[in-house]
Amino acid sequence: QVQLVESGGGLVQAGGSLRLSCAASGSIVSIKTMAWYRQAPGKQRELVATITSGSTTNTNYADSVKGRFTISRDNAKNTVHLQMNSLKPEDTAVYYCEIVYRSGTGNIRQYASWGQGTQVTVSS
Known about the structure:
Layout: E1 2-7, E2 10-13, E3 18-26, E4 28-39, E5 46-53, E6 57-61, E7 69-74, E8 79-84, E9 93-103, E10 108-112, E11 118-123
Parallel strand pairs: 2-11
Antiparallel strand pairs: 1-3, 3-8, 4-5, 4-9, 5-6, 7-8, 9-10, 9-11
């Protein structure tokens, strides 16, 4: 069993900042990739940012958030963060995290917090 607990969402004015966190726990040996997605009402789910750790750490961002959002991770705590600056009303969405991890049985699995998430609302 794996659990993902998100925090940090809320209501902020345009131009403001928020920091999201997602802590993973359960039968996890190691986490290769951690990602943030978002889904606004009436829109498709969008991949916001990913961070992959290996011999090097690689990050990728959606064009819509490049230069404004920063993804980071704390491997010791199995936690991923999303620092969101210069927020815009179009950033309003429910934000979800996802991990690709090695389980206690040795298998590579994927798990996401669909159905939970944290609401981010940016007012104009």
